[in-house]
Amino acid sequence: MKISALTLHSIAIADPPLRSSYGLHAPWALRTIVELETDDGVRGVSETYGGERPRAALEDIRGRVVGMDPFQLAGLYGDINREAVADAGVPGGRSQEWLVPGENPLDRHNRTFAAIEIACLDIIGKATGKPVCDVIGGRVRNRVSFSAYLFYKHAGGGGDGAYADEYGEVLDAPSAVRECRQMIAQYGFREIKLKGGVLDPPVEIETIRALRREFGGGVPLRIDPNCAWSVDTSVSIGELLREELAGGGYLEDPCPGLAGMSEVRRRLLAKGIDTPLASNVAVTSFAAVPEAKALDAVQIVLSDPHYWGGMRQVQYLSHLCGVLGMGLSMHSNSHLGVSLMAMTHVAAACPNLTYACDTHYPWQTAKDEIVAGGRIQFVDGAVEIPDKPGLGVELDYDQLARGRERYEKVPFRKRDDEAEMRKHVDPNWKRVLPRW
Ligand SMILES: [Mg+2]
Predict the structure, then answer these.
(1) Is 431 contained in some domain?
(2) Nearest-angstrom CA–CA distance, 393 and 122
(3) 176 lies in some domain
(4) Is residue 419 part of a domain?
(5) Where are any strands of DSSP class E within 304-368?
(6) Domain that holds residue 88
(7) Number of domains comprising the chain
(8) Cβ(313)–Cβ(368) under 8 Å?
(9) How does DSSP classify residue 361?
(10) Which of 331, 335, 345, 360 is catalytic?
(11) How many Å lie between the centroid of ligand 1 and the Cα of residue 21?
């Protein structure tokens, strides 16, 4: 079996005005849909970061991919990652402190490989009649749980204004509780994540407390301010939220850098608070894991098949974290159903996955979904592995064409949350770390 064609579809999907410490989400999120076809007519698909650079990186390896046997992935990984191995030695070189996921040049090899690997695994699954999770070693769970991913947001549904503003404006604790209630009613999530680092800490502390009052101690809570807090602020918020973040919750990237997180951990432990610290900012590659462990800076690593180098690298990470006594969760970005199914399959095949995964899926709409048959269904906050070969999804080519048309109309080719913040919220806004 040989790959005979590689097709790239650059698409745009509506994204509501969500806030984070990086700034503001633009009205459109960009994605690239990768399609591979084999000489015997099997098609594989994957979804990855959008815009010019991710597409150009995939174009660069077209000659290596077309003609290859889709089962021979280790050789492709070696070829794509030769430079990345050298880059891995750069301490802290892959931190996402200043670069949004998908824009870190040191991750480009992993991102590019992942996009091809996932489409090849879809092909392998279809060729062997097996779901992808069973191709990569077998599932340890049939259903993968996700968390309610809450954002503070401005009014608006994103896109061209024709998209419904499902959750309205959310800029205080009561509206965040309303947002969460609505999301849980629709998807059944049983864990809650709040994207913080946006409003003054007392408002975010009150939001977490209000969520605890509303949903009770059986629903774990986590907060992720993306490094917006100083060490002192992180410690004091860790103290103030010691009850709320206990029992399966965590504090995610409270402050910049491994040294800072290590100090937060030490000081919280000295006060008898063992809220675990999670990261997808300070730890974004295998090279950073031993240091994070040695400093006790991070107790939970957030994986992501899109930038950790695909599904099997996430399985290796799951194993490494298990060996080191660390937990594993999963990070996400604005995405559609193909990404969601890739995340679901790999999460199903990671024995050491200790938390519900993140997903931005509730923030996208049926209007933009490119999966045939429409949106992926959640039951009780979980996605079930479909009884179908490969990823279990096919593309809706009419929807894909609409996504490409939207992409042509979007005036930018790269995510820039800081610029969006200046354009729509505050002309003088600058990202400051730590801000509080
Ligand atoms: Mg994060």
Answers:
(1) no
(2) 9
(3) yes
(4) no
(5) 327-330
(6) 3-129+399-409
(7) 2
(8) no
(9) G
(10) 331
(11) 10
76 and 210 assigned to the same domain:
no
Residues of the chain below pLDDT 50: 91-92
Instruction: Tell me whether residue 154 is one of the annotated catalytic residues.
Output: no
Q: Is residue 315 part of a domain?
A: yes
> Which among 25, 153, 195, 293 is annotated as catalytic?
195
**CA 133 to centroid of ligand 1, rounded, Å:** 25
CB-based contacts of 183, cutoff 8 Å, min separation 6: 148, 150, 167, 189, 362
Q: Please tell me whether residues 62 and 164 are part of one structural domain.
A: no
- Burial of 147 (C-beta count, 10 Å sphere; 0-12/13-18/19+): buried
227 C-alpha vs ligand 1 centroid, how far in Å? 9
At 246-291, the pLDDT tens digits run 999 999 999 999 999 999 999 999 999 999 999 999 999 898 999 9
> Are residue 113 and residue 138 in the same domain, yes or no?
no
Residue 216 φ then ψ, to 5°: 85, 170
- Closest by Cα among 246, 175, 238 to 211: 175
- The pLDDT assigned to 91 comes to 45
Give residue 219 CA to ligand 1 midpoint distance, Å: 19
What are the C-alpha distances in Å from 210 to residues 176, 228, 278, 354, 363? 9, 21, 22, 25, 22
> Model's pTM, two decimal places?
0.97
Q: What is the pLDDT of residue 98?
A: 79
Encode pLDDT of 7-32 as tens digits. Answer: 999 999 999 999 999 999 999 999 99
